[in-house]
Amino acid sequence: MAMERSSYTNSLPFLLFLLPLLPSIAEAQYKSLNKKSLNKKGFNISALFVFGDSTVDPGNNNYLTTLFKSNFPPYGRDYSKQQPTGRFCNGRLVTDFVASYLGLKDEIPPYLDTGLSFKELTTGVSFASAGSGYDPLTPKISMVMEIPKQVDYFRDYLRRMQLMIGKTGTEELIGEAGFLISAGTNDFIVNYFTLPEQRKKYTVQEYQLLLLQKLGEFLQDLKDLGARRILVAGLPPIGCLPIVITANPHYGFQNRGCFDTFNYVAVDYNRQLQNKLVSMQETFFPDGRGRIVYVDIYNPLLDMMLHPGKFGFEDSVDGCCGTGLFEASFLCNPTSLVCPDASKYVFWDSIHPTEKTYYLVFKTLGNTINHFLLD
């Protein structure tokens, strides 16, 4: 015991000498990792940070007290490790494909996973929470993480990075990073069109303006925290979601078709969103040293839903899980019947696309992403 104590005591001066150097060592490690990732595919981007809802949540809800989770089979059935991750899909999400395309890594992890490595943290994480939205009421309905809380976690991330790679290293990391935001569907499907009191309080036009106002505040926060390359996804054709078709059987249950009224709302919202982003681009980055780019997911998805055969799909109005009519989250579970081949379906459950659908959407975004990467 005496020898062990003596050895420990003798090592103290070395440890005390080493501690002040740790941030410098971490910063050097970051620069080495970052240099490799930048050169991998020739893109000048350091990391990808993601905010929003279930379309981009890789598992943050696993760590929240909410029923809106997907960390159980059959979710993740076709994932690389063939196990659920918390993604509301049978496999990967659009953001995973984007990160891979940029040469950063194959998958974007959830920030709330406390086991993330240094490299994982410095190449990008997702703060998204399934069930969230721009309207503060929306995440309360599902007891999930609101958008301002996601920003708070990003601030926490910045503090951690400053301790690890220093203030200058962190500023460089964020300045060269990409930010992707995908939300809004839950605001209409879970909130506005479900709660009568909301429709009494707001007209559709007033509610759209409320969401755009909240989005503007969110983008201002990100800009103030150093973001200068931001992608904002519009709404999908929400009238074509299987759960919406089930709830609005205007063609009858035997002849399922998109609910056009909801799609008109999505189209109008997307038009206003594009105008707002153009205005914010001019306000935020008058010198052109930053970009806010609109991501069109409406038209690619609508094309798949209306012309499934063109993409090798056999069903575009039902989900692969269960009956495909209403199951999602805990209703799509280990006891549910599941289609044998998810690649034949546009939707995995009654709300969320399959991995193949996400991949096909990603394939349409090449020009958008390349424009977004310009300095």
Write the layout of secondary structure elements.
Elements: H1 2-18, H2 22-40, E1 48-52, H3 94-101, H4 118-123, H5 137-142, H6 147-175, E2 178-182, H7 185-192, H8 196-201, H9 204-224, E3 229-233, H10 242-247, H11 260-284, E4 291-295, H12 298-306, E5 315-319, E6 345-347, H13 355-363, H14 366-373
Parallel strand pairs: 1-2, 2-3, 3-4, 5-6
Helix pairs in contact: 2-6, 3-13, 9-11
Q: How does the helix and strand content classify structurally?
A: alpha/beta
The whole-number mean of residue pLDDT values reads: 90
Shape: globular
Number of helices: 14
Report, as a whole number of angstroms, the end-to-end distance: 61 Å
> What is the rounded Rg?
22 Å
User: How many discrete structural domains?
Assistant: 1
Please count the beta strands (DSSP E, at least 2 residues each).
Answer: 6
Give the ordered list of helices and strands.
HHEHHHHEHHHEHHEHEEHH
Could you name the ranges where pLDDT drops below 50 across 5 or more consecutive residues?
1-22, 33-39
Percentage of helical residues? 40-55%
- The assigned CATH architecture is 3-Layer(aba) Sandwich
Query: Could you give the order of strands across the largest sheet?
Result: 1-2-3-4
Question: Approximately how much beta-strand content do the residues carry?
Answer: 5-15%
Polypeptide structure, described:
By secondary structure, the chain is an alpha/beta fold. It has a single domain (24-36, 44-299, 358-373), classed as Rossmann fold, CATH 3.40.50. 47% of the residues lie in helices and 7% in strands. It has helices at 2-18, 22-40, 94-101, 118-123, 137-142, 147-175, 185-192, 196-201, 204-224, 242-247, 260-284, 298-306, 355-363, 366-373, and strands spanning 48-52, 178-182, 229-233, 291-295, 315-319, 345-347. Strands 1-2-3-4 form a 4-stranded parallel β-sheet, sandwiched between helices.
